[in-house]
Amino acid sequence: MECVMIAKQISKEYIKVEKQKTAKNTVTAKQKGKLRKLAILVILTVLAVILYMTVNMRFDNSKLFKYAFHLRIPKVIVMLLVAFCIGGASIVFQSLINNNIVTPCLLGINSLYTLIHTGVVFFFGAGSLVARNTNVAFAVDLILMGIIATFIYSYMFKKTKYNVLYVLLIGTVLTSFFSSMQTTMTHIMDPNEYDSLLATLVASFSNINTEIILFSVVMMALLIFILRKDLALLDIITLGKDQAINLGVDYDCTIRRLLLGVVLFIAIATAMVGPISFLGLIISNLSRQLLKTYRHTYLIGGAVLIGMVILIGGQLIVEQVFVYSIPISVFITGGGGLFFLYLLLTQKRRA
Amino acid sequence: MKDSKITVLLLISTILLSIFSLFVGVIDLSPADLLAGNFEQLEILLISRLPRLLAIVCTGVGMSVAGLIMQQLCMNKFVSPTTGATISSAQFGILLALLFMPGSTIWSRAIFSFFFAILGTWIFVWFIQRIQFKDTVMAPLVGIMFGNVIGGITSFLAYKYEMTQALSSWLVGHFSTVLRGRYEIVYLVVPFVIIAFAFSNHFNIVGIGKDFSKNLGVNYNLVLFMGLSIAAMITASVVVVVGSISYIGLIVPNVVAMFKGDKIRCTLLDTALFGALFVLICDMIGRIVILPYELPIELIVGILGSLLFIILLIYRLHYGHKAIGRKTEGWNA
Known about the structure:
- The complex is a heterodimer of chains A (351) and B (333).
- Chain A has 15 helices and no strands.
- By secondary structure, chain A is mainly α.
- With 333 residues, chain B is an all-alpha fold.
- Chain B has 14 helices and no strands.
- The interface between A and B is large, with 36 and 40 residues.
C-alpha cells in the first residue's frame, strides 16, 4: 500500500514539475514573441534612418553629398533623442498615475517649459549671461522647470485626489494658461529681445543647436543613471499603491523622483524641438497595444522605437513627398486629436 | 431683497467702469473739453472709444449669456462656447468664407460663421447626448478636443492657402480694430439676448430633462436646438468682429450661479451684467499694462479665466453643485 502511495506522490510531483516546465516554456515563447516584435521595430527604425539618409542624396557629387550629410545627421540624431525622451517619459508617466490616456504633454508640461524659457529671457534680459550662453540658459531652465513643475503638478494631483478626468481637464486649461502668459510676455518684450528669444524657442527639426544635443545626451544619461533603481521598480508600481508598499517600495518617494525625471525629460525634448503634444499619446498606446505586456522594459523600448519610426518616417514624407508644404506638427496634432477622442470614448464605454 | 441689491450693485459698477473706460487710451480725453465742444475729441470719442465700449459690453453680455444657455440646456456646468467647439467652428466658417469668397464683406463672413458655429455646436451636443457620460468633466474634455481637431483643420487649410496671417486676427481676440462702421454686427447680440430672456423658462424646463419637459408640454427637441442655435449665433457674431474670446462663457455663468442659484430668469440679468463687467476689467488691464500699446484681450482673459476655471473645478470637485450663499435651500430656492 505504502509503495503505491509513494509512487502516486512521486508521479504527482513529477506532473507538477512538468507543468511548471511547460509554463516556463510558454513564458519564454511569449517573451520571444515580444522580442521578435521589438526586433522588427528595430529593423524598421534602421530602415527609416537609412532611407532618410539616402533618399534624394547626390552620391555623384561629393560636395553636395557632404553638405546634405551634414544637414541630415543632426536631424536624425535629434529625432532619435526626442522619440526616446517622449516615448520613455510617456510610458513612465502613464504607469505612475495608472491611466493610459494621459500623457505629460497633454498636461501642459511643454508649454510650461516655453513659458519658463521666455520668463528667463524676460527677467534676465537678452544681454545677460543666462540668455547668451545657450547651455547656461538650458541648465537654468531645467532647474526652474524641475522645481515649478513638481510643485504645480504634485499639488494638482493631491487636490484632485488623482481623479484622472479632472487632472486632464485642469491640464488642458493649464496649457492655455501657460501659453497666454507666454504670449503676453512676448508682447511686452523688447522687439530685439523677442527676436533672439524666437531663435531659441521655435527650434524645429531643421535648425538644431549641436551643443544642446551634446548637453541633452549628457543630461539624459545622468538622469537615467540617477533614476535607475526607481525605473526598475516601475513594474511593481503598476500593481497599485498598497501592493507596492507591501512589497517594500518607498512609494511616495519613488513616485516623486520619477515624476521629476519625466518632467525633465519632457523639458529636454521641448528644448530640442518645441512642443509636440500628441506624439507621446500615440506611441505609448501603440506600444501597449502591440506588445500587450506590463513589463516596462518592453513597453518603453516599444514606445521609443515606434516613436523613432513615426518621427523619421513622417519627416521623410513631409520633406520628400510634400516638399515641406505641410509641417509635421499638423499631422501629429490632427491625427493625435482624433486618436485621443477615440481612446476617451472607447475607454469610457468599456468601463 | 438681497438678490436685487447685487443686481443694482453690478449695474452701477458696470456703468461707472464704462464711463471710466471711455477716457482710457493713448490720446487724452477729458470730460471738460468734451463738454466745451472740442470737435477733435468728440470725433475720437464717436469713432473709436464709444464703438469700442459698445463692442466690449456686447461681447461680455453675449458670451456669458451664450454660455449660460448652453450650460442650462446640456445640464452640464462645464459646457460653454469654448468647451463646446462653437468658437473653433465659427473660426472655421470665417476661414472658408475667406477662401471661397476672397472679396467677401463682413456680412457674408458672418453668415458662413453663423452656419458653421451652429453646425459645430449641434454636432457636439448630439455627440454628448448620445453618449451619456457618467462624469460631468467628460463633456468639456471631449468638447475641447473636438475644438482642437477643428482648429487643426483650420490651421492646416490656412497654412496650405497661405491665409495664416489673414486668419490670425480672428484667432486671438482683441478690440483694437473696433472702429465705427466695422463692428455693427456685434449688435446682433442684443435681439438674441432678448429672445433668450423671453424663453428663459423654457430653457430651464428643458434643462431638467426630456421626460419632464414633455410632461409640461414643452417641445424638447425644438427648444433644445433653438437654444443652441441662439447661443451659437451670439458666439459667431462676437467672433466675427472681435475674434475668439475664451472662458467668459464658462466663468461668468458659473460664478453667478454660485451666488444666485440656477434659475435662469433670476440669473440672466446678473450674468449679462457681470459678463460685461468682467470683459471691461480685462480690457482695461490689457490697455494699461504696456500703456502706449495694448495687449489683446484674449491674453488677459486667458490668464484670469483659466485660473478662475481651475479654482472652480476644484471647488466643484469638493462641494458638488452647492451654491455658496444658499447652503441647504437647494437650487429651486
